[in-house]
Backbone:
C-alpha cells in the first residue's frame, strides 16, 4: 500500500548539518511539506557552503520502561467498540512491540518518549490511545481541536491522516492534514471549524498560526512524530515556537528513530515526567535488515548496479541519491541499460510524483531512484532492497533510508556503493550506526 503526496522545490535533498541550534544553524524550512487537502468528517537569503557540525553527545536522561514486547490482541485492550471496528477494518489483530510498550502508558495519560526503528508501527501507537481517549470522553460541548500531530513531511502527514480516517470511519471524529504547496483556503476553513485532530507540518502550521486561523486553547494531546527528522530538516525553531504557544497542561507523545541531543533537550523543556520506551537498539536500524557494501570506483557504479539489478535483486528496489540532478541522471542511465526505472524528487510535479510511485507499486518500474526528502513518509509494502548510491552523510540518514525495507518484521537488505574516496566516511558510518558492512 502506498500513500503519497507531493513535496517542495525548496526541500533539501541531502543533509550535511547534523545538529541545529537556534543561534547558529542554517534554517532549512520548506513551505510545502505534507498531507491531504481538506477536512473530513465521517458519520458512524544568500547561498552558503554546507558545514559539517559535530553533534553534541546525546546522554540519555531516562531509564527505559520495562514492558513485555509480546503482541497484545487489540480486542483485549478494552477499547471502544467503534474504534475496534476501525482497527479490524484495517486488518489489525494484535499489537507490535512499540505499540505494546506505548499504548498502555498513553492510555494511562502519561507523557511518552518512544525510540523505535522506522517501520515498527509507531503511528498506531499514538493514534489508538488518542482516539480511545476522545471516544471515552465524548465530544466537547463546543467544537475544539483536541489533538495536534506534527510530522516532518507531507508524505508522512498523508500517511498518518489516512490511518486516522480508517480508524475513525465508524465515529464522528474529524481531521485535517495541513501542508504547504496548495492554497490555504480549505485548510483554513477546517481549522476555523475546530476539527478534532490536526496533522500538520511545522512550516504550514506556522503560516496558519500567523493568520490566526487555528486555536489550540483546548488542546489535550500533542504528538511529535519523527522528531529527529524534523531536527535534520531544520524545522526545530518552528517546532519550539509551536510548542511554546500550546497549553502547558496536555499529554505529549514523542516518537523518534534516533535520539539526538537537541531532541532530548526539548523533552526536558516540554514533557512532564515522561515514560521512556525503547524498542530494539537505540538509534540503529531494524534487526531484520542485512547490510552490505560494494567498493568500486565511482565511474563503475552505474554498470555494476545495472548488472546487480538484473542478476541478483529479488524484488522492488529503492535507490537513494544525494541530489535531484543525481537521481535524474541515474534513472536515465539505468533506463538506457534496459532497467525500467523512475525517478522521484522534489522538482517533479505532483502528477509526476504520484505516477512514479504508482508505477513502482504496481511493478511497472521495479526500480525507484529517490532523494531523501522525496521518499520520506512513503509507506510501501514489500521493498526488498534499499541501495545507497553514495555513502550517506549522516548516521540518521542511513537509519531512515534503510528503514524503507525490513518493515513490519519482514526481512530486507541494504546495499551501499562506496568509491575509494568514500571509505573513510563509510568506516565512520559503521562506527556510528553500530553495524558492520560486509
Residues:
Amino acid at each position: 500500500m502506498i500513500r503519497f503526496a507531493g513535496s517542495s522545490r525548496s526541500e533539501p535533498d541531502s543533509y550535511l548539518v547534523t545538529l541545529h541550534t537556534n543561534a547558529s544553524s542554517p534554517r532549512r524550512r520548506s513551505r510545502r511539506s505534507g498531507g491531504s487537502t481538506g477536512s473530513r468528517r465521517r458519520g458512524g537569503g544568500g547561498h552558503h557552503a554546507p558545514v559539517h557540525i559535530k553533534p553534541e553527545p546525546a546522554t540519555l536522561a531516562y531509564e527505559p520502561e520495562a514492558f513485555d514486547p509480546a503482541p497484545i490482541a487489540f480486542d483485549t485492550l478494552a477499547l471502544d467498540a467503534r474504534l475496534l471496528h476501525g482497527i479490524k477494518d484495517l486488518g489489525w489483530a494484535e499489537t507490535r512491540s512499540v505499540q505494546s510498550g506505548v499504548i498502555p502508558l498513553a492510555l494511562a495519560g502519561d507523557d511518552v518518549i518512544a525510540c523505535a526503528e522506522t517501520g515498527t508501527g509507531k503511528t498506531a501507537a499514538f493514534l489508538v490511545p488518542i482516539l480511545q481517549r476522545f471516544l471515552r470522553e465524548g465530544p466537547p460541548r463546543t467544537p475544539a481541536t483536541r489533538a495536534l500531530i506534527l510530522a516532518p513531511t507531507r508524505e508522512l502527514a498523508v500517511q498518518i491522516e489516512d490511518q486516522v480516517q480508517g480508524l475513525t470511519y465508524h465515529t464522528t471524529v474529524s481531521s485535517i492534514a495541513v501542508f504547504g504547496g496548495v492554497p490555504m483556503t480549505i485548510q483554513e476553513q477546517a481549522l476555523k471549524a475546530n476539527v478534532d485532530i490536526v496533522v500538520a507540518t511545522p512550516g504550514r502550521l506556522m503560516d496558519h498560526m500567523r493568520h490566526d486561523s487555528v486555536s489550540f486553547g483546548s488542546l489535550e494531546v500533542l504528538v511529535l512524530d519523527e522528531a529527529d527528522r524534523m531536527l535534520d530538516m531544520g524545522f526545530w525553531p518552528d517546532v519550539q515556537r509551536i510548542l511554546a504557544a500550546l497549553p502547558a497542561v496536555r499529554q505529549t507523545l514523542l516518537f523518534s528513530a534516533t535520539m539526538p541531543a537537541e531532541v532530548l533537550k526539548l523533552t526536558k523543556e516540554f514533557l512532564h515526567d515522561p515514560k521512556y520506551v525503547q524498542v530494539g537498539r537505540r538509534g540503529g536500524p531494524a534487526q531484520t535488515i542485512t547490510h552490505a557494501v560494494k567498493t568500486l570506483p565511482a565511474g563503475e557504479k552505474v554498470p555494476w548496479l545495472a548488472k546487480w539489478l538484473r542478476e541478483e535483486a529479488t524484488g522492488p528496489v529503492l535507490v537513494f541519491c544525494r541530489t535531484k540532478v543525481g537521481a535524474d541522471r541515474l534513472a536515465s542511465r539505468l533506463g538506457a541499460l534496459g532497467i525500467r526505472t523512475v525517478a522521484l524528487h522534489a522538482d517533479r510535479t505532483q502528477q509526476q510524483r504520484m505516477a512514479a510511485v504508482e508505477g513502482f507499486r504496481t511493478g511497472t518500474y521495479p526500480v525507484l531512484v529517490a532523494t531523501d526528502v522525496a521518499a520520506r513518509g512513503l509507506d510501501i509494502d514489500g521493498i526488498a532492497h534499499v541501495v545507497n548510491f553514495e555513502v550517506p552523510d549522516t548516521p540518521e540518514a542511513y537509519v531512515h533510508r534503510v528503514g524503507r525495507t525490513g518493515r513490519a518484521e519482514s526481512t530486507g537488505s541494504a546495499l551501499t556503493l562506496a568509491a575509494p574516496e568514500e571509505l573513510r566516511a563509510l568506516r565512520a558510518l559503521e562506527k556510528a550506526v553500530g553495524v558492520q558492512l560486509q
